[in-house]
Amino acid sequence: MKTLVWVEHEGGTVKDATLSAVTAAAKLGEVHLLVAGAGVGGVGEAAAKIAGVGKVHVADDAAFGHALAENVAPLVVELMGSHDAFVAPATSTAKNIAPRVAALLDVMQISDILSVESEDTFTRPIYAGNAIATVKSKDAKKVITVRGTAFEKAAREGGSGAVEAVASTGDKGISSFVGAEIAKQERPELTSAKIIVSGGRALKDGETFEEVIYPLADKLGAAVGASRAAVDAGYVPNDYQVGQTGKIVAPEVYIAVGISGAIQHLAGMKDSKTIIAINKDEDAPIFQVADIGLVGDLFKVVPELTSKL
Amino acid sequence: MKILVPVKRVIDYNVKPRVKADGTGVDLANVKMSMNPFDEIAVEEAIRCKEKGVATEVVAVSIGVAKAQETLRTALAMGADRAILIQTDDEVEPLGVAKLLAKVQEEEGAGLIILGKQAIDDDSNQTGQMLAALLNLPQGTFASKVEVEGDKVSVTREVDGGLETVKLNVPAIVTTDLRLNEPRYASLPNIMKAKSKPLATKTPADYGVDVGARLETLKVVEPAKRSAGVKVADVDELVAKLKALGVAA
């Protein structure tokens, strides 16, 4: 089986999520990559070095600059003429594009896979991860998105793929990119961080969230996350959200501060290696999944912890 | 401008799903069902467009069992003008749903179709994008802000690193994210009024769409359980544990 993997990139570098998708694709067969964007020659070169990669298709055109699904999907469809599976990391960019590709190919997409059981059978989470379904696809071609935390990352070096330019399918002219507000990354990115410190509604407001959570995170070199309740209450922006409707993370250590442990939050972090919970309610559901729990007032405990580390 | 709002009847947000003992799925017998939360946001957004004078009519559509009528009545009570139920006892996958909705759009000619970004049962996150593909229309997914400006709609999207704004030609597909709005509760008088609003019932066959499943569910199991660990008495003990994990020096 020949797979085509969507390369997620930013600022000229291949993002980690791509490497997990490569691992998943390698379980299906030959791994070819698609790098689409404006001025992405360097990304193509870098992608060709990923271990186990065959051909790297590079589509360099202004029309692909912001990965608008309207322009990118026809490009993928064109390439799918000679590939059997489109495999994309479950990032916001690829989640926008992949179903558009699937519908154009008349294929039912398999979203957010956790494992490859065989070339047509996969496992995926449903009901916010409260159940795991094993599904078998009857479609001749497959369109798949991959949960990054469920697959090892392929090595960035060691491969020697052949870079090949692809003709642009052009700008469809029905949508345009206006602008972006991308949060400055002073801390590690949530989905690839080794340690995450997350805060919940108990932090009271944005200011105390900042005063309590950030110093601890910075001491540990950790990324900062939040529960949906904290995001809904406006303490932090939505891209901090960990959970079913936010980001799915699986760091080495996840520290949940003042988070009760709603189903929807657990869905986003319960695959973390070690979970540490700090909460004043000893019956909070978070303690049922935590490896290490500390019952106490977070406003006292967290600053003390920060100072003692 | 007309707005079409597809809605799905799903397990209530607050109910913990239980996997059936025989591994065939999740037990939905005697479980509280509600409108998919993202679809509630979609209905709210459509109604706000009408209240602002941007939209003239809001049409809710659902594909599902006879009881999905209740979900449509909720949409009507919130403020939708009329509803269409495409009734089937079979589980219809996002691709089938998108094909049916494409046919509905051919009849209705809506300017905007606003859907939830994902349903909280199958967590697919596909229908809106697929519908956009089938209709060859632009898509503004994971929207946190929607502004109609003449024959364009500007959509601010929740993306991994923050926010992104795109401008789409109308007609367009929008899928909602959580922060787009806070859906209203239907008032009792509006719930009563909704009972007399028009609700048409159709079948997939009426639209000539094959909604046969492409994915076969072989089994459904509970995820591996985490067991509760230890509680530490104080911060010093926690620091010691963190050091043991190699997290702190």
From TrEMBL, chain A:
Residues 3-181 form the Electron transfer flavoprotein alpha/beta-subunit N-terminal domain. The lineage of its organism: Bacteria, Pseudomonadati, Pseudomonadota, Alphaproteobacteria, Sphingomonadales. Heterodimer of an alpha and a beta subunit. SUPFAM superfamilies: Adenine nucleotide alpha hydrolases-like, DHS-like NAD/FAD-binding domain. This is Electron transfer flavoprotein subunit alpha. PANTHER family: ELECTRON TRANSFER FLAVOPROTEIN ALPHA, ELECTRON TRANSFER FLAVOPROTEIN SUBUNIT ALPHA, MITOCHONDRIAL. Keywords: Electron transport, FAD, Flavoprotein, Transport. It comes from Sphingobium vermicomposti. One of its GO terms (biological process) is fatty acid beta-oxidation using acyl-CoA dehydrogenase. Coiled coil: none annotated.
UniProtKB/TrEMBL annotation, chain B:
One of its GO terms (molecular function) is electron transfer activity. Keywords: Electron transport, Transport. GO terms for biological process: carboxylic acid catabolic process. This is Electron transfer flavoprotein subunit beta. Residues 23-211 form the Electron transfer flavoprotein alpha/beta-subunit N-terminal domain. Its cofactor is AMP. The electron transfer flavoprotein serves as a specific electron acceptor for other dehydrogenases. It transfers the electrons to the main respiratory chain via ETF-ubiquinone oxidoreductase (ETF dehydrogenase). Belongs to the ETF beta-subunit/FixA family. InterPro entries: ET-Flavoprotein_bsu_CS, ETF_a/b_N, ETF_b, ETF_beta_N, Rossmann-like_a/b/a_fold. The lineage of its organism: Bacteria, Pseudomonadati, Pseudomonadota, Alphaproteobacteria, Sphingomonadales. Pfam families: ETF. Heterodimer of an alpha and a beta subunit. The keyword Transport applies.
